[in-house]
Amino acid sequence: MLIEGIYLDGKTSKRHTARLEVNNDHKITAVHLTEQQIILSFEHQSYAVESRLGNTPREITFDDEQLFVCDNHDEIDKLTTWQTSRSSNQHSWLYHLENNSKLICISTIATIVLLYGIVVYGIPSTAKLMAHNVPYFTSAKLFSSLDLLDETVFEPSTLPVKRQQEIRALMTPYLSNYKGLQPTLEFRSGMKANALALPNGVIVFTDDFVNLIQTDDELIAVLFHELGHLTQKHMTQRMIQDAMLTIMVVFITGDVETFDLVTGLPTLLLDLTYSREFEIQADTYALTLLNQHDIPLQSFVDAMRNLEDYYLKENDGKAHSAMHDFFSIHPKTSERIQLVEKFQQ
Amino acid sequence: MNPPSEISAEQNSNNTTSGNRSLGFEFRGDGMEYFKIWIVNILLTIVTLGIYSAWAKVRNNRYFYSNLYLDNDNFRYLADPITILKGRLIAVAALIGYYIMSLFFPIVAGGLAIALMLAIPYFINQSMGFNHRMSSYKNIQFRFKGSYGQAFMVIYVWPILGILTLGILYPLALLKGNEYFVRNSAYGTSKFDFNATYKDYGMIFLTAIGISLAVGLPIALIAYFVPAFSVISSLLYIVIYFAVIIYVVVSFTNIFYASLSLIEHKFEANLTIAATAKVILTNLFLTMITLGLYLPAAKVRMTKYICSCLTMHTSGSLDNFSAAEKENISALGEEFGQVFDFA
Known about the structure:
The structure holds two protein chains of two kinds. Chain A has 13 helices and eleven strands. By secondary structure, chain A is α+β, with helices and mostly antiparallel strands. In chain A, a hairpin with a 4-residue loop joins strand 10 and strand 11 (202-206). Chain A is rod-shaped, with a radius of gyration of 33 Å. Chain B is built from twelve helices and ten strands. Chain B has helices spanning 3-14, 31-47, 53-66, 81-104, 106-133, 148-164, 170-183, 198-225, 230-259, 273-289, 295-308, 331-339, and strands at residues 20-27, 68-70, 73-77, 135-137, 140-144, 185-187, 190-194, 260-262, 265-269, 310-315. Chain B has a ten-stranded antiparallel β-barrel, surrounded by six helices. Chain B is globular and about 70 Å long. At the A-B interface, helix 2, helix 3, helix 4, helix 9 and helix 10 of A face helix 2, helix 3, strand 3, helix 10 and helix 11 of B.
């Protein structure tokens, strides 16, 4: 059998029109250089046939970087099926997988389902497991970020010391059940009206927030919400989830140079979805605790309403745009109030 | 799909006798065909928990190299997936090691961070060396040999000077980077050369700034006096931003190839803003409405377009390049070339 192709000796860039000679025992015996009328013997040389990939030319490499290239896929495939022990044979199933339209349809669907499963179930549950199993000092050291926040967004609190003491006295009894989390209370100004829980147990209330709250019960409701974040290790979990998402996106698109918008937007949206899920979990936790302590659930609703009013004023009375809702970390206030109604039933 | 490159391919064969030929680059890949390879890669990468990604990278690269033709000969990608896998494992191990160190010995970790900064020029040289060695055309491998000092200048010193001079020297930093890349590259034993000037690069930046001001300022003024215009103006800014980015990318690509030479052979790129914008917008739109499934076809379309704009002006035959001597790279050096090369 003779296979037409091109021969390159690997020493110069000159191409030679060539014929590959395969004998009756299915062994490559020689390469004929047709123009020069030279026959190169390959009787005792080892060779490797590169695996088939799309419509790209077939390549056979010999010792000393010699190369034979041709487009005759059928003949080369015949050659590889005879060489059962060749490494290239292991790869031919890949080519068949890549060229079977039924399998491709199944692969596409399988990939989408797998990705969906990973994003919706795999990543959150793995992150949850990891977050609850990292030693306390890890999460504390990793995200003991109050110093950083103090340097960047926070200013010292301007609340009267008396008011701060009142709030501490009000909350301390509720914190005694959470010794394992080592919760501490801090007051700061800046960052508008906000309350946040850092993984090392620091719960920060901003001045604007304390000022907009009207009753002690509302403060307790928000404290319970933050304790919900802490006990369920949401911040640590979110960091782990973001890292896993990024790695996943890099694995999928890493080999395709893409514009950031295409890969960045889904990552951002998924992160927001995760974070809203955490808020709902923390809300549910807060409502359970309120019930346990016989505090009316209405205080949670009032706290949410007050927060919303505050932000409406901040935005000059303009209602939140749809865009803002779409990119918000928190669920909509109306959704959170609905949750309370559901919880009451 | 791509008439211009086919026409130029025909012209090439007609001009063989003259010695001076204009050869068009041509990409013969196909979006659908690459989609199949891509989706199988993703599936196997997920199923093997990321291990297959090394094989996926080789298959991707082989597809794009082997479909790139110049003078009817294709390029090849030669890397062994095992090497890439080892490089990636080293990178992951180093990352975990660094993470643990930073937890227990923050001071040591700080020292490691500085050591890493100093090591980056070395790794970049290794990586370029690997990628060049693993690329061949007409069965002759490419080579890259850069010194640590040069790499350090290009990665740190020139960009910092560019920032310190408020951007005045920034075009020079880019130019130095390209010079470093091209002048240390070789095809076999033949070195590439690069002869762009600071003025070439500076003019592109000046034009970009000029366009932004000439169009942006009037819009800002109208929006200031006519408040109702502000909705349209923010849209217009996005359009201008996009247009300027494309102008800069197109100009730099064209200048790059115009300044590139391989002994007496010259190159030319004729990307246009309109055609590039059309390709990018089409790709962006189709990728979004297919939720990312169009991504592989988008890459094929972009590659096809860019290749159809590239020409090599040869002077004499392309048959006389000879292979560089075989480099004895230690196994670890080879794998280090992959550590920072996740893309």
